[in-house]
Amino acid sequence: MGERFLFDGPDDATVTILLAHGAGAPMDSASMTATAKALAEAGFRIARFEFGYMAARRSSEGRKPPPRAETLNPEYRAAVAELAADGPLIIGGKSMGGRVASMIADDLYSAGKIAGLLCLGYPFHPPGKPEQLRTKHLAGLMTPTLICQGTRDEFGTREEVPGYALSDRIEILWLDDGDHDLKPRKSICGFSAADHLATMAKAVVTWAEKLAR
After folding, report:
1. What is the CATH number of domain 5-212?
2. Residue pair 184/176 in contact by the 8 Å Cβ criterion
């Protein structure tokens, strides 16, 4: 698989969304693919890309562990430059991918290169380690941001997140009983994963319309 980007959605969409994957699963994982399709059906042009360590797993022997998230910042910047999107660009991703995007967002936003940041399951802390917060840079974030989070996400639950110091540019969409992939237990809440992805996509449309004004 040699393509730099995986595309979904209309070529002539007004807004493009660039998504990076999480630490452990590639850009064409079932979760990433379902998310991209839901956003594409809502009218966005979606581009997915892979960090080098993940792309290397496709061809080389052995699985390299993911590097520290901040070391991936240059790779995300390179993807933005290579994509060279026409019109408004939103950057983001799943879990670690969204975290990396959040670390470079303000530089790109202040330079007029992006319109917003979309995080799908933000890893506020490692599972089981609520004291190891990854939120310091989010307190002063200037980029308009939408975080879509499951209420039982072990990286940051609905009970935990309201206590964090977060910028007022950050909006959070809570998805009932969703896990880190935004998937609910259907027997508990009556919603399916597809329902939650559709809700997420609608929320992104409403949020993105405000950015484009």
Report:
1. 3.40.50.1820
2. yes
